[in-house]
Design goal:
Layout: E1 2-8, H1 11-17, H2 20-40, E2 44-49, E3 52-57, H3 66-88, E4 94-100, E5 104-108, E6 113-117, H4 119-130, E7 136-139, H5 140-146, E8 150-158, E9 167-175, E10 187-188, H6 191-203, E11 236-237
Parallel strand pairs: 4-7, 10-11
Antiparallel strand pairs: 1-3, 1-4, 2-3, 5-6, 7-9, 8-9
């Protein structure tokens, strides 16, 4: 599970300089844009607290690259801020924190609002506080998962409130172009398996049971989803 927090920089100062209607309009523009970007990247908006947007990647639907999705969403939010700034008539920047690990996901409150709690949530929030204007800070666990997605600057071990030991953090300096998806890469040394896969795809007419995010039918291994087949069989390479 990967958790992302995004806050507007200098929000306290801005809220004292603007009247209530202007603050409301500014928050609306930012939240609408951030929420849309998060959903476009497969995340779920957990809550809004003041100027902060909290999102989770990996619940209620998990993907195989949730940390990567969170990092790309963070980049897109930063990239959207010049347009949001133009809309509200003043420069706005954000700082973002991302952490991953085990959390507790459940419904809370009278309305059973779905939310997540745990150490990773606290760490992502603290990393957001430590991040500079226009910066994304990530935990060591996230950096390990997305090391090739960007150039990272180690920030050493940070003393973080609520954590007994200092935690390692990394700042994203420059995102790299996306690598090709796995199904576009030739598979080497698996000729027999690929021929069997091709025969299976042709014989079943292309049907797929339990695609990503879809529960398996009853009696077909409840609680465990079969992987989706590739749209086409990758080319053989000797």
């Amino acid at each position: 599970m990967t958790v992302l927090f995004a806050d507007i920089c200098d929000y306290t100062r801005l809220s004292t300089e603007l009247d209530a209607e202007e603050v409301h309009a500014m928050l609306g523009r930012f939240v609408d844009r951030a929420d849309g970007i998060i959903r476009d990247h497969g995340g779920t908006v957990d809550k809004h607290v003041g100027d902060s947007v909290m999102a989770v990647f990996g619940a209620p639907v998990a993907h195989g690259d949730d940390s990567m999705r969170a990092v790309r969403a963070a980049t897109a939010i930063h990239d959207a801020m010049p347009e949001v700034s133009e809309q509200v008539g003043r420069p706005l920047r954000v700082h973002i924190g991302i952490a991953s690990g085990q959390v507790v996901a459940s419904g809370v409150g009278n309305d059973a609002h779905y939310t997540v709690t745990g150490e990773s949530v606290n760490l992502a929030s603290r990393l957001t506080d430590a991040a500079g204007s226009g910066e994304t800070l990530i935990s060591a666990g996230v950096q390990h998962a997305v090391a090739r997605a960007a150039a990272w600057e180690p920030r050493g071990a940070l003393s973080v409130k609520g954590f007994a030991e200092p935690v390692s953090a990394y700042a994203m300096k420059a995102p790299r172009p996306r690598a090709g998806i796995a199904t576009e890469r030739p598979l080497v040394g698996r000729q027999t398996e690929l021929r069997q896969l091709a025969a299976s795809v042709e014989s079943d007419g292309g049907s797929v049971l339990g695609g990503p995010g879809t529960p398996a039918p009853a009696g077909k291994g409840e609680g465990k989803q079969p992987p989706a087949r590739p749209a086409s069989v990758p080319p053989l390479r000797s």
